[in-house]
């Protein structure tokens, strides 16, 4: 599946912090505002799960695999 450059940047954020499936990463401020479309798209593609905490997302198993292969 083709990912946009912003979606790849989001996945790189998860990789930077050594995130694994089910671990929550929080985005805030300008980072959240600029990445919201990519975050929503990754949720739609079932690579991320939106958490209850505002701006928080976690990787799914397929999102983790995509992060490992695309970044």
Structure, explained:
The chain is an alpha+beta fold and 71 residues long. The protein has a single domain, classed as Arc Repressor Mutant, subunit A (Orthogonal Bundle), CATH 1.10.10. The chain has three helices and three strands. It has a three-stranded antiparallel sheet with strand order 1-3-2. Helix 1 (5-16) packs across helix 3 (61-70). It is globular and about 30 Å long.
Gist of the model:
The protein is α+β, with helices and mostly antiparallel strands and 71 residues long. It contains 3 helices and 3 strands. The protein is 54% helix and 14% strand.
List the topology elements:
Layout (H helix, E strand, L loop, with lengths): L4 H12 L7 E3 L2 H16 L3 E3 L5 E4 L1 H10 L1
Antiparallel strand pairs: 1-3, 2-3
Helix pairs in contact: 1-3
């Amino acid at each position: 599946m083709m990912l946009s450059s912003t979606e790849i940047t989001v996945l790189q954020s998860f990789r930077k912090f050594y995130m694994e499936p089910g671990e929550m990463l929080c985005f805030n401020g300008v980072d959240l505002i600029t990445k919201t479309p990519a975050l929503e798209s990754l949720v739609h593609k079932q690579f991320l799960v939106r958490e209850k905490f505002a701006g928080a997302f976690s990787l799914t198993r397929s999102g983790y695999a995509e992060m490992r292969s695309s970044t």
